[in-house]
């Protein structure tokens, strides 16, 4: 039995004019109006550059979204991922009807509650209590329905002391807590949540993810934008990968995330610096090189699950007799720490030092990994830290039988596991 389609986007695009608003816009509007009056196509739909913020603009117009098509069914939980500037927030604004598409059509069935950014939908001069009732009325709820949810919203947000205070005096965290509480508890058919959860603390983020899971379990639709791949993977059954205003991939969450990470992250197996101010560090230590060296001398750039390799660091110690140790953190690209390991603390002589960690074969699973490094003095004081100093991908070169799925887990050790007749 197929699910009911609640959101359908048909060839939607969104164009923005670059530069100062008001400079030449009247003449452009007249040209656009005159073309449409004569039954011709909007002349400015034929121009415009791709949305790439790293490049200098060569036109007066840019396409934030370009020819986006998708369908979302009732009860779906979909995560939208992509780099900054990919068009994710623009898409959410179109779905929330904050703005309209330049071309194309969006069909939506059901009430939408949106949490796009801090303060969206709240009037700063109204109290928290008044804003709850105002938001509920906007969603089409009666005063009685809102009142039945009021205590639950206030308890979830943890702002009972300030509920009769104008929200303009709230901190950004309080704003988000109350806004999310309103959006999630007033029972919309479709809940849209942007990256605003980054404002809250860890405990509140956990509550929000738990609430969204609860909302999804009751058959409501959730659209969730986040750079936290763990949150997307734990909450969403499917995902959409956007790049430069277009939908690049859409499907099962794990598959889409893996495609996104493999396309956006490139291997960085070797980094070297000269012993000067350009080398990362300070007046105590400076990192001179970080290198991944595999056991395969022929193809050193390919690391498979059965490849052994070493991670080597060369650094310069500026003080004789400093007691130092190194801490290494190996993380997946989605932010999961696979392990943390440290060298033994010891008094080091002044000059160049070398540290090396050996990773055996048949240990790591296929994934993209990043390495963070810390140098610690006297086992207590961090004197140097660098994140993502190396990035590498482990590929799966082993297939067991006819199964071609992704092996679960961050590690994939070759352990002896047997069975026999008793």
Q: Briefly, what CATH class of the largest domain?
A: Alpha Beta
Helix and strand sequence = EHEEEHEEHHHEHEHEEHEEEEEEEEEE
Number of strand elements: 20
Give the helix/strand class.
alpha/beta
Q: Please estimate the helix content.
A: 10-25%
If you average the pLDDT, what whole number results? 80
Task: List the defining traits of the structure above.
Rossmann fold, Coagulation Factor XIII, Chain A, domain 1, 2 domains, 8 helices, 34% strand
Q: How would you explain this protein's 3D organization?
A:
The chain is of the alpha/beta class and 422 residues long. The protein has 2 domains: 5-264, P-loop containing nucleotide triphosphate hydrolases (Rossmann fold, 3-Layer(aba) Sandwich), CATH 3.40.50; 270-395, Coagulation Factor XIII, Chain A, domain 1. It is 23% helix and 34% strand. It is built from 8 helices and 20 strands. It has helices at 25-37, 88-95, 128-138, 143-157, 172-185, 202-217, 229-235, 253-264, and strands at 5-17, 49-50, 61-73, 77-81, 103-108, 112-115, 190-193, 221-225, 238-243, 246-252, 270-272, 285-294, 303-304, 309-317, 322-332, 337-342, 346-348, 351-359, 367-377, 381-395. The chain has a 6-stranded mixed sheet, with helices on both faces. Strands 13, 15, 16, 17, 19 and 20 form a 6-stranded mixed sheet that branches. A 4-stranded mixed sheet has the order 2-3-1-5, covered by helices on one side. α3 crosses α4 (143-157) and α4 packs across α5 (172-185). It is globular and about 75 Å long. The mean pLDDT is 80.
């Amino acid at each position: 039995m197929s699910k009911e389609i609640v959101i359908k986007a048909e060839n939607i695009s969104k164009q923005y004019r670059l530069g100062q608003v008001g400079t030449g816009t009247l003449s452009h509007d007249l040209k656009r109006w005159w073309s449409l009056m004569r039954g011709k196509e909007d002349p400015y739909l034929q121009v415009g550059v791709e949305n790439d913020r790293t490049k200098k603009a060569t036109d007066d117009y840019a396409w934030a979204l370009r020819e986006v098509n998708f369908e979302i069914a009732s009860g779906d939980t979909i995560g939208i991922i992509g780099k900054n500037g990919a068009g994710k927030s623009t898409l959410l604004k179109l779905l929330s009807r904050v703005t309209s598409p330049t071309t194309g059509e969006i069909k939506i069935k059901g009430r939408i509650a949106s949490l796009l950014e801090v303060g969206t939908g709240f009037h700063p001069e109204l109290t928290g209590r008044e804003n709850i009732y105002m938001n509920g009325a906007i969603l089409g709820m009666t005063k009685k329905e809102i009142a039945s949810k009021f205590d639950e919203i206030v308890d979830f947000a943890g702002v009972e002391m300030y509920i009769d205070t104008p929200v303009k005096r709230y901190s950004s965290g309080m704003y988000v807590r109350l806004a999310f509480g309103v959006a999630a508890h007033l029972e919309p058919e479709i809940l849209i949540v942007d990256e605003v959860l980054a404002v809250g603390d860890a405990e509140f983020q956990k509550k929000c993810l738990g609430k969204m899971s609860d909302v999804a379990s009751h058959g409501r639709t959730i659209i969730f934008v986040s750079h936290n791949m763990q949150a997307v993977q734990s909450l969403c059954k499917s995902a959409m990968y956007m790049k430069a205003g277009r939908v690049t991939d859409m499907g099962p969450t794990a598959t889409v995330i893996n495609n996104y990470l493999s396309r956006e992250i490139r291997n960085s197996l070797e980094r070297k610096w000269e012993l000067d101010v350009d080398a990362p560090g300070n007046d105590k230590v400076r990192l001179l090189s970080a290198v991944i060296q595999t056991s395969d001398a022929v193809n050193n750039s390919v690391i498979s699950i059965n490849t052994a390799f070493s991670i080597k660091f060369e650094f310069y110690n500026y003080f004789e007799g400093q007691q130092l140790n190194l801490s290494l953190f190996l993380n997946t690209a989605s932010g999961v720490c696979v392990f943390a390991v440290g060298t033994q603390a010891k008094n080091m002589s002044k000059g160049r030092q070398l540290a090396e960690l050996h990773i055996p074969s048949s240990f790591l699973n296929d994934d993209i990994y990043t390495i963070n490094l810390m140098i610690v003095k006297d086992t207590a004081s961090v004197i140097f830290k660098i994140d993502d100093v190396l990035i590498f991908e482990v590929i799966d070169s082993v297939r067991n039988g006819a199964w071609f799925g992704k092996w679960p887990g961050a590690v994939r050790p070759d352990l002896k596991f047997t069975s026999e007749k008793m």
